[in-house]
């Protein structure tokens, strides 16, 4: 059985693929490490789902259950040829649509993941509007960090 962290990543991938982000092929939504500087990216545009930061862990009760916090980064990446402004509205739309797909289920807040029953709360931790430092000048990089609370 896969780890809870990986199950969450798979659930996020399924949700984002179903969200039909305009102009992003569902096959380009992948679970993988963030690329290192100079590393070749997957075909663009693409979405990379990866663990983010440290997992926190604390006792939940006297029966051995643990409350664990997992953070997942969703990075929406596209080539800009050095001109971010031309497609800025598209990139920010992807970011909003992706964040909404994770935390909303239709008109209702999503607090659980069907595929990961231990998850009981989902929150957007951080949305970076544009992070030029993450990649070269020729890429648009929109980042979302989502926090998942799980009792295991």
Report what the structure shows:
The protein has a single domain (4-151), classed as 2-Layer Sandwich (STM4215-like). It has two helices and eight strands. With 152 residues, the chain is of the alpha+beta class. Helix content is 20%, strand content 36%. The longest helix is centred in the middle third of the chain and has 16 residues, at 88-103.
Question: Helices and strands in order, then pairings?
Answer:
Elements: H1 4-18, E1 29-31, E2 46-51, E3 56-59, E4 66-79, H2 88-103, E5 104-105, E6 108-109, E7 119-128, E8 139-151
Parallel strand pairs: 1-2
Antiparallel strand pairs: 2-4, 3-4, 4-8, 5-6, 7-8
Task: Give me a quick take on this structure.
With 152 residues, the chain is α+β, with helices and mostly antiparallel strands.
- Bin the helical content: 10-25%
Extract low-pLDDT stretches: none
Order of helices and strands: HEEEEHEEEE
Mean pLDDT: 86
Any idea of the CATH topology? STM4215-like
> Which class in CATH terms?
Alpha Beta
Descriptive terms for the model:
6-stranded mixed β-sheet, 152 residues, STM4215-like, two-stranded antiparallel sheet, elongated, 2 helices, alpha+beta
